[in-house]
Write a structure and sequence with these properties.
With 326 residues, this protein is mainly alpha-helical. It contains 9 helices and 3 strands, in the order H-H-H-H-H-H-H-E-E-H-E-H.
């Protein structure tokens, strides 16, 4: 899978390099600060693509003694680096736009510039949609982050084309720096969002969508012996996940029987996360008398209380470090 990721990001890098050159050509032709802003953002596409290549290469390396969970965390560094570069580009764009408000430059050959930007926008649209689709399919944060950045470039380029059309037909050259300011603000927002995602991943912030998916899988295949699951924690390492939790089982089960139940859970969840690997660390807890009223075990030889009803598994009782009912 990593080889495919690397090929995809190399395609993105090559295309971004060509499109960046095209945008700078449009700037040289027109002297438009808005086009320059678009070109500056495209430089970040190239830099981020190069860093993403290294990120995917490092992610593909196997676990070792110094990295027992693998190297997947580098993906969060990758999107954080990309977000920081985008944020810096946004600041530079705003600075350059401010200069043009006070020192205006005559615009020329806007029609040729528009055609060049329109061509790069179409190419970026196809590339961005491709990256977002593949990033989702491969569960790759690096490819998804790169795709989101490319799509932001597309949206800003569409706005740029609209501004160039207005300037071409009206002669209102003040729209040039104004459009650049708007693009700079949008770029700053995208950079912040990517940095926020990076920080969340590096700080092991829980992705509740993943938690909900794991709970749904286990609830759908719930066995009578699985009395409750609690203290669940999910960490993401690239496209792989590390999940640990406590599983309450009947205390009289033999070790081999308990092991079979743990392997069943691992198999179910790994099937659900087919695009990545899920590593489970499960701590088994013995049942206690207070578990009897929600335990589904029929003909239990040690039952002390009648079964009163099943407790539905949800975030509120799966994430805390306590048995249900305590």
């Amino acid at each position: 899978m990593q080889r495919r990721e690397l090929r995809i990001i190399l395609v993105s890098l090559i295309v971004s390099f060509v499109l960046t050159g095209t945008k700078f050509t449009a700037w040289f032709l027109t002297h438009s600060v808005a086009i320059l802003s678009d070109a500056l953002e495209s430089i970040i596409n190239v830099v981020a693509g190069a860093f993403a290549c290294y990120s995917i290469y490092l992610t593909s390396k196997p676990k070792d003694a110094n990295h027992p969970y693998g190297h997947g965390k580098v993906e969060f560094f990758s999107i954080g680096f990309e977000g920081a570069m985008i944020f810096i580009a946004g600041c530079l764009i705003l600075f350059k736009a401010g200069q043009y408000f006070f020192i205006p430059t005559e615009l020329i050959k806007l029609d040729k510039g528009m055609w060049l930007i329109a061509g790069t926008t179409l190419a970026n649209l196809l590339l961005g949609l491709f990256l977002e689709r593949e990033g989702k399919r491969l569960s790759s944060l690096t490819i998804s982050g790169n795709g989101k950045h490319i799509m932001t470039d597309v949206y800003s380029s569409i706005g740029l084309i609209a501004a160039l059309l207005i300037m071409h037909f009206t002669g209102w050259e003040w729209i040039d720096p104004a459009a650049s300011v708007l693009m700079g603000v949008l770029i700053l927002k995208q950079g912040y969002q990517l940095m926020r995602t990076s920080i969340s991943g590096l700080m092991d912030e829980t992705d509740m969508r993943v938690v909900d998916k794991v709970i749904a899988v286990l609830a759908a295949h719930r066995r009578a012996r699985w009395i409750d699951i609690h203290n669940m924690r999910v960490q993401q390492y690239g496209s792989n996940y590390h999940i640990d939790c406590h599983l309450t089982l009947p205390y009289y089960l033999e070790l081999s029987e308990a092991h079979d139940e743990l392997k069943a859970i691992e198999h179910l969840v790994n099937e659900a996360f087919s695009s990545g690997e899920v590593e489970f660390f499960i701590h088994t807890d013995p049942c206690i008398p207070s578990c009897c009223h929600y335990c589904q075990m029929e003909n239990c030889p040690v039952r002390q209380d009648e079964f009163t009803g099943l407790i539905t598994w949800k975030r509120e009782n799966v994430l805390p470090n306590r048995k249900h009912g305590e």
